[in-house]
Known about the structure:
Layout: E1 2-8, E2 11-18, E3 21-23, E4 30-33, E5 38-39, E6 48-52, E7 65-69, E8 74-75, E9 80-81, E10 90-92, E11 94-100, E12 116-123, E13 126-127, H1 137-141, E14 146-153, E15 163-168, E16 171-177, H2 185-192, E17 203-205, E18 213-215, E19 220-225, E20 229-235
Parallel strand pairs: 6-17, 8-14, 9-20
Antiparallel strand pairs: 1-2, 1-5, 1-14, 2-3, 3-4, 6-7, 10-13, 10-18, 11-12, 11-17, 12-14, 15-16, 15-19, 19-20
Amino acid sequence: MRIVRYDHAGHVGSGVVIGDAVHERSGGPIVAALREVTLLAPCDPRVVVCAGRNYGQPDGTGKPKLFLKAVNAVTGPGSAVRFPPDLRRLEYEGELAVVIGRTAREVPEESYRDYILGYTCANDITADDWRADGQWVRAKSADTFCPLGPWIETDVDDPAALHIRTKVNGRLVQDSPTKDMIFGVGELLSYVTRWITLQPGDVLLTGSPAGVGPLAPGDVVDVDIEGVGTLTNSVV
């Protein structure tokens, strides 16, 4: 099932995509054709927790590297990512995002699926030359720096059996199976919820594979995750 949030003729609502239409709920009445609505970020998180450097070689600590993105950064599919005027280098980071379905505290790794509503695509936009702040606040949390979408796909059997492909202006720049994550979804969710209670709608970003690179105004970025969907955003 594909769960969406949408704006239709000024009305913001949630529903599911069935075929080429948005319905109020599974089996419910049609709201509108998919082409007639503006898709919003598919959830409205209270917390966005991110795993850094979760592909490639482990660093030897045996623990995930975590940071937060502020919720003001969340934006939806088709929306514009704003390139700050005083920035030299803006970067894309295509990622698999986990959307929480029930209150998650001290989640057992083997039971992680019980706490997940579904998965969506994310682009962890980063202002590279602002990382000198030390806390990465500006670098990760400026407005529009967390595109999510296009929907929440609930029918994912194994998040380690997916594939992330990111394109910039049609050129393939990231191409990786999610099985290459150092810490899988279960490990990450268990680790995070030792200290941070996650609520329904909250988001866990699972890290970006090799190929992270620069963006410029006018670029169009596609983050495609097979079995989940394609998130497209432009840079202005």
